[in-house]
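Fold sample X.
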Amino acid sequence: GVNADSVSAKWNVPPAIQDGNPNSGAAFWVGLGGTTTNLEQTGTASDMVNGSPVYLAWYELNPAKPIALSNKPVQFGDIMSGTVSLTNSNQYHFALTDHGPPGSSTDKWVFTKTVTYSKGGHNSGEALAEDSGGRDSLPPGCPLTDFSTVAFSGIKIDGYSIGSYHPSVYQMVDNKATVSSLRNGTAYTAYFQHS
């Protein structure tokens, strides 16, 4: 609910676990403008596609479909950091880094891209775990992947801890996931809930 020019966070790529359905999706991302239909986001997905886990990185200028970073592979357990920033009135900069598994001394890869998007929104900043059903490789409306847990940390908006903005917590309608309280003003964990 604030005009945000940048948002950043770190998270671990959680597992994709089959939970009774061969197709399911889960996305983990940072973005701007999530309270509008025109938002800018980058992150990772932990999907089940025909019974097999699929992990990928992506960025998106919603309402357009996400663009997969097919030459930037991610694996379960990798530590990611992502930033989306408004660099002038209509240009958005995406940065996504795969730091590799915990303890890695060098990054696996870094992705950056600046895109002109005149319809962009930046009235909020988010760090989210959500269903990603409807991605090209998934049928529309498929359920949330069992991702076990995902921990976001270092969440900042315009360089300040997200806690300093008194953020709102949005809970999934179907109660397939729960979230912890905010820790140190910059971190939270999301948990998959089994039926």
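Fold sample Y, listed below.
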Amino acid sequence: MKIKNLINWKLFGVLLGVGIFGTVAVFPYLLSIQGDALKELPLSLTTVLLLSLIQTTVLLSVTIFVGLFLGKKVGLGTPLLSDWIAKQPIQEQLKSKGWLSVKLGALAGVLIIGFDYIFILFMEPIAVASAPLWQGFLGSFYGGIVEEILMRLFLVTLLVWIMWKFSKSTSDSPTATSIWIAIIAAAVIFGLGHLPATAALTTITPLVVFRAIFLNGIGGIVFGWLYWKKGLESAIIAHFTADVLLLVVFPLIITLS
């Protein structure tokens, strides 16, 4: 197979472009909440941010390629963007999928906030440095775009493909069970991935680990289901909505109350 036929390279370019945008957009937020730690590094902030951008760009390039390549084999992908690039009408799809994604993303955000209050009853609150609301809004693009590319387009797709490829089933498509296993596994991994940052704020205990997995798992399962049933775009919209609720709307409510 020729390289140009391996994946939709226009789609690759669009995803990489928005991924780079999401990476740059989160920088002001990172500087607000981790600025002091970054200043202790032996490199200038400009150098640190540039290296971070380069590293993330390389990571995105690899994961987008793998996600698109394997996604064709297991029926997962980006239906809206694919149709848009093919100059097909997407207005009706965008309207129906968009509203569903916003509603489920908001639900995920509310559940995360609500359950976090329950965890606070059994553990010390984890103090997180505050950031201006506009920075939280920009940072939401990172969660919505970059994290969904990494966790859903890449990881869920890869796990589904591995289970489908090495199963004894003769089916031409993955089973619902294997997809659910991939969605839950990615959600758990996503939660564990937050522990290094949490370790800088509090002592890691079994309850802290469970909290990270459970709270992030709520979003991971919602976004994973949307990726499976509606496409990556729906997962991105839902994740972005949840992050706006967590990083902008909820802090604003706390400030005004």
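Sample Y note: The chain has a mean pLDDT of 91.
Also: The chain has ten helices and no strands.
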